[in-house]
Design goal:
By secondary structure, the protein is an alpha+beta fold. The chain is 23% helix and 28% strand.
């Protein structure tokens, strides 16, 4: 097994463990895209999709760490029925749900930096927070499949 693959796999496992810790089995975790047609939203109302969007095959020169960009999509069912308690300005995405998903994404990033290997060393050395590789987030929704969520893109050294 190549060193780069092993290091990336360790980082991905740490990310999955952090997602599991966000709630008592709240999120179904998938690698790749959110399975829009094969997921039972009634049984598991939240899903997390984890992807590696950019990674090196080899470590650059004297660099002590690998650097890769990951994306994490957190999604849930889009509420269909109207709710008089909603304070939204428009129909569609529920701001309270998006806020909850955003809080989970923030907690994910915080907890990710605390993950350690068996020797007690950090698995993630650094989260890139400035420049072109800084952490970004976006909202998404799909009325055809009645889902809403957020996706974060973040770059780490590991």
């Amino acid at each position: 097994m190549a060193e780069a693959y092993r290091a990336r796999l360790t980082a991905l496992k740490a990310m999955a463990n952090v997602i599991r810790s966000l709630g008592t089995d709240r999120y179904r975790i998938v690698r790749g895209v959110i399975p829009l047609t094969g997921h039972d939203w009634r049984y598991r109302p939240f899903i997390a999709a984890l992807n590696v969007t950019d990674f090196p095959l080899v470590r650059a020169g004297s660099e002590p760490f690998y650097k890769a960009t990951f994306s994490l999509a957190l999604a849930t069912k889009l509420a269909i029925e109207s709710d008089a308690r909603r304070e939204d300005l428009v129909e569609g995405m529920d701001e309270h749900v998006l806020d909850q998903l955003t809080q989970d994404a923030e907690a994910f990033l915080d907890l990710l930096l605390q993950q350690q290997n068996e020797q007690g060393d950090p698995i993630i050395a650094r989260l890139i927070t400035t420049g072109d590789l800084a952490t970004r987030a976006r909202e998404f929704a799909d009325a055809s499949y009645s889902i809403q969520g957020i996706e974060i893109s973040f770059t780490v050294e590991y």
